[in-house]
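Hallway conversation turned thread

IA: we were arguing at lunch whether anyone had actually written out Methyltransferase end to end. Turns out nobody had. So, for the record, here is the sequence (351 residues) and right after it the structure tokens. Reply here if something looks off.
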Amino acid sequence: MNAHTEADAADRDLIVRIAFGSMAAQTLRAAVRMRIVELIGDARRTAADVAADAGAEPQPMTRLLRALTGLGLLREHTPGTFSVTRAGAFLDSTRPGSLTSFVRMFTEPVLTRAWEHLDGSVRTGDIAFDTVFGTDFFSHLAQHPELSVEFNAAMSQAAGEAAAALPRAYDFGRFTTVADVGGGDGTLLAGVLTAYPALSGVLYDTAEGLAQAPRTLAGHGLTDRCSVVAGDFFRSVPKGADAYLVKSILHDWTDEQAVTILGHCREVLPPGGRVLIVEPVLPEVVDPGPEPGLTDSALTYLSDLNMLVNVGGRERTRPDFEDVCRRAGLRVTSVTPLPDAEPFSLIEAVA
């Protein structure tokens, strides 16, 4: 095979691998729904035993376990005998740092159906989710409590790395009270308050978003240091904080809506206060990285498309953030990447 055809084969292989991506995702979904990793545990188990515990047939179970092995989540030691790899252990719902809710949510048909209409959203700019379901994503969550609980759990799991990285990357000691706007179950704010014992906190979200917050705060011993306030950040945000933390919120919304949220933070920001935005910051020109495929760079742009089809928001570049901040009466003073929580950065803004 000459060099030209070798290059062609590699390029064709890239396309095939990407095309199989949705199948890999559904394999993860099946593993989580059937509790495969929990059933295997820390031992080596046969596919027949796992199948018996899962209420499944041995031969199809063997095929599922081998697919998971091919994905690097299990290891096959002898024919039909498997154990869990370090990566696979994150599919154990009982493990600290588990990603099971994240997998369930991001492979949930409610999220994936709108992707079938990506081309339509690109042509029109319309939100495919609204067309498919007849309502917007967050209203749909409010109408389906079980799905809302799953979404909250997925967001909590997704916030874990940032909750650990943010207090190490930024000095919160200058503040007295931090308000987490759209803070969900409080995972991120709990990380900050735990690292800075003198701080008080305000956790602010909708009633649905806050449903699991009391349990999170109690688990961290923060019930007395953090108040929980239900409300709508499109109408107002609570007064009394000198730092307003906004993580993974602005990318859900249009520029105009982002300006509204930031503007409400600006209205209550005291002298010397800060608005701290935690989101991916896209480069102005795509850096695909050294290898093609589903790289960290690619995942961020796929997230951008997910915002397009499901909620109507977008990921942003630094100039984009500077623009929405300026329109809200804020000025960006720094952008700090969070290497322990890629692809997130911390954007600091002042009045």
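OS: looked through it. The chain is about 50% helix and 15% strand.
IA: good, adding that to the notes. The first strand starts at residue 45 and ends at 46.
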